[in-house]
Amino acid sequence: MSKKSRNKGEKPEMEADAVQMANEELRAKLTSIQIEFQQEKSKMDEIRGKDRVILALEKELGVQTGQTQKLLLQKEALDEQLVQVKEAERYHSSPKRELPPGIGDMAELMGVQDQHMDERDVRRFQLKIAELNSVIRKLEDRNTLLADERNELLKRSRETEVQLKPLVEKNKRMNKKNEDLLQSIQRMEEKIKNLTRENVEMKEKLSAQASLKRHTSLNDLSLTRDEQEIEFLRLQVLEQQHVIDDLSLKHVVETFFGFDEESVDSETLSETSCNTDRTDRAPATPEEDLEDTTTREEADLRFCQLTREYQALQRAYALLQEQVGGTLDAEREARTREQLQADLLRCQAKIEDLEKLLVEKGQDSKWVEEKQLLIRTNQDLLEKIYRLEMEESQLKNEMQDAKDQNELLEFRVLELEERERRSPAFNLQITTFPENNSSALQLFCHQEGVKDVNVSELMKKLDILGDNGNLRNEEQVAIIQAGTVLALCEKWLKQIEGTEAALTQKMLDLEREKDLFSRQKGYLEEELDYRKEALDQAYLKIQELEATLYNALQQEPGRRASEALSEGQREDLQAAVEKVRRQILRQSREFDSQVLRERMELLQQAQQVRGGWRAQGASCPLPSL
Which has more pLDDT, 320 or 274? Predict the structure, then answer.
């Protein structure tokens, strides 16, 4: 007993270490993801800073362009002033009008002064224009440099955006997943609280029932045996309760944050349950005290060990579920929970009946062993029936799948036959045109019965006539157009040849596909026959097992057990069987609907492919000459 408990104690510790290592790996992954997120966030900040620099450069570029426009306007104004000065110089250099002699000297003096002033203005304007030209060149060079820098920064920003886009999407998905996991953790914590409350209530009820026993010193041997039976049933109740907790807490842990809080809660809960079980039982006599304490201590140790194993398995299952990414059906979970609760109530009723009978009879407990043996055999037979029913449903699903595939192939064959019947006779003859002797148009003329025309000589004559200068322009144009029309006709016939080859290839492909479908139909019919035979064999096995079950129930312990069962228990058993049947039928219907949806999708894809072929055939029709 100690070796078994030691081995069982080492297993959960190893599983707990493995789960803890996996938890640490997940936390390391989470920290690495957070570090990557911070790095990408810093990159995004750098990109935003570069965008701000680009905007500042664009503003500065706009200011510089405004300044260049102002300088250009000033240059134009100076050019206009220079033109006016030059016109004034020409005016002063022109022959002068006759003036009085006194006035001529004054005019000469004024002309000399004006000339000196104009020369100074011209020099000043030229210097200013040169300065403005140099400033304009500098601004243009700076403008080009800024534009190149802006284009380079825009290119780099686009590249960084393309690189960061998957990371940003990954970050969003991770945030959303974290929110969902936090919500699921909150929901599961509420469920855990409710289940722990129910567990405490059930343990209080069991402890209250255990305190109602009658203890005597005359029938110690029979009572110890009866107490072992009661203890065995109580352990069965606890195991079923653990199964209920397992089904309700299967997907509690779906996060990167580990299992520390749950392990603490579950361990404290198991310790409190062990302590309550130990403290609630009071011995009646000193002789029974020693035996009861030993058996109860062993039962308590076994219970604590089972709870630890259950917690480790729960953590490992949650970790595996998180890695696989599977989900549970809430409706199925609720049904199984109801069924297990019904089994729990039935076992509690059995415990109460046994305690009452032990109180009344005291010693006669042989029929209890017979009843337990019959219950075990009944459970084995029910498990066999369930396995065979599962195999039967699987075979039915496979047979339905084969039927659906057969119907789909028959529909496809009928469709191809109908298409072949409706389509016109497609006797295409590929005429290969020789490369050196004659052209495609020449061969077409021979096929039509026009054998006197030589297309190559006709083309040469048309070229000669087009070059003849004695003809009128209209005649030359008509001859040239006739030559081009003949060349286009020859090109068109070559295109028709390519279209004919493509269509014949498509027809050959369709014929091969039709043969392939017919062969596949034969294979599926053979497979359907094989599946039908397997289904018939499964039906025969089910009938044999039902017969063996009926014979087992007709035996004497079976009659006692059936008499011991009450009407409520029989109704519960029938309801449980009906639930299982409905569940199997629902699963088979869901599988059939899924197979039907897949077949419909395949049919739609085949129709789309056929529509594409029709569109290709319509896009390249045979022209009528």
Answer: 320
